[in-house]
Amino acid sequence: MMHKTRAARATAGAALAIGAIAVLAGCGTSGGGSAAPSAEAEELGEMEGQVSILAWPGYVEDGSNDPDVDWVSGFEEKTGCEVTSKSYGTSDEAVNLMKTGDYDVVAASGDATLRLIAAGDVAPVNTDLIPSYEGVYDFLKEKEWNSVDGQSYGVPHGYGANLLLYNTDVFAEAPTSWDVVFDKAGDNSGKVTAYDSPIYIADAAVYLMAHQPDLGIQNPYALDETQFQAAVDLLKEQRQHVGEYWSDYLKEIQAFETGDSVVGTTWQVIQNVLASEDATTDVVLPSEGATGWSDTWMIASEAKNPNCAYAWLDWIASPEVNAQATAYFGEAPSSDAACDYRDDCEAYHAGDADYASQIWYWTTPIADCVDGRTDVECVDYAQWTEAWAEIKG
Questions:
Q1: Which stretch of 21-35, 207-221, 250-264, 342-356 has the lowest confidence by average pLDDT?
Q2: Which of 152, 201, 249, 284 has its CA 20 to 30 A from that of 274?
Q3: What is 10-158+294-351's CATH number?
């Protein structure tokens, strides 16, 4: 999972909550299909025969990469909607590609969703037209990264936490705090690793919430100037101890196997790979909590094939398909029913609301503070991007 570009004001997104419904209702179609459903519609129109999807690698598998990994063919057979897809590498790339109008559907992380909403590039969805939505975990629905003023803009896909990975030979006892990569990073200077994205500033903010409560941080994605500067200062201090910033998970795996890295932020799937190779590593969710991701399937506001797009959202959220897709990527599924088709849900803490409550899911930082404050402006994502370049030097 990954991350962003420019942020926009929440007020713009709120205004779109009504306006974009009309846009979706008036979308054109191709192949002679019927018009898109409105927010009040009770059923879908005629399937258009095709759908274009933009997603993270591994989210739209048709058997061409691995004959045993295919949840696209069944969709095509059931709906008659032929799938074309494109993978992207970062949330910034996804946001830019959605501006082309070439895609009907996008799988977006929370660091991209509000930008897509505010720009008018995605439309509200009528979840009544998506039967699988009912089974999705409540703690993933109608959140600040996938809805505006109670209006849903998509269907949750999977989720996960950015965990603390450590070398068990170096740490005889499991660390319980992120202090091992911040205040105590010097103990393993040069062998600390951190995620390479401006959104990592939120990880520092999570740490400060617990260790500098006087800053008053209530949400790591809603930072005023003082709070933001404190997070930046913490990361600049950390910088001298970081051996490598990673965004390619294969490189982090290699660094922990060689011992070049001994502690840092990670994903559960990385530890799963390391464990399968008998590496001396383990993961923990520290006492301060953690950042994480919850991806959302969204429909383009100018979708050429909106009915097939709705059909895809229902298909990918259906238990068996969601189980396949999220297991392949390495994340928790979006429903309990999906766990009937997986044997590793416990490892991902799927459905554990208490565990999930400790995760601060990636959310686009915008000037209108997402923590509800109205007496200050928060630092937006454009400034996060500038600061990240300065932190890394």
A1: 21-35
A2: 201
A3: 3.40.190.10
